[in-house]
Design goal:
Elements lengths: L9 E5 L3 H7 L4 H20 L5 E8 L7 H25 L2 E5 L9 H12 L6 E8 L1 H14 L9 H6 L11 E4 L18 E4 L9 H12 L8
Parallel strand pairs: 1-2, 1-5, 2-4, 3-4, 5-6
Amino acid sequence: MSGEKIKPNHIGLIMDGNRRWAQERNLPTLEGHLAGYEKIRQAPEWFFSRGVKILSVFAFSTENWNRSQEEVNYLMKLLKKAIDEEIEEINRKGYKILISGKIEELPGDLPGSCTEAINKTKNNQKGILNICLNYGGRAEIVEAVRKMIKKKVKVEQVHEGLIRKYLYNGELPDPDIIVRTSGEERLSGFQLWQSAYSELFFMEKYWPEFEESDVDLILEEYANRKRRFGS
């Protein structure tokens, strides 16, 4: 029986390969990040226009602080630029911004920009862009445990639903599929709790090479998977 293909409600995106894309073209590393930034400006529209409701993107991990100071500084400036300059357009399109991670530990006035973006778009309903920023899956779980201890949660009260409540933006459903570009086949700490039953899809191309047609490829791949959730 033919029918409409099953679509993922929530897609996780690990945008990998900016640096290697630049190196292979004899360009400075920072050029790779700039090319990657241009893609993430376009990507939400590509996904949301096809019926995806939530897009979680891995923008900066807790491990990325180990990179060179020059690269980290550039990435922070790029993130600030992205949030400050794109917020009006995102708001106009009706997208809601959420940010998952240790926002308060970000440098300068970046925490304020994050909070402003969240507040400005909080009532929008045409798609949720969840930006994982200064994010690590283990750090998220550790932080959830700390919050529960602080709240004096009793041992017998601990269950999966309660733990989820203390995660970053725990009200979001789990990603149906997590996509990583660049040919690397690992999650690198992305959505560790939430990815228990997510489908995984690894693409060979680098993130700056990502195109609108790749969204259709992801949706087709997901439609062909059979999700059993352990049954």
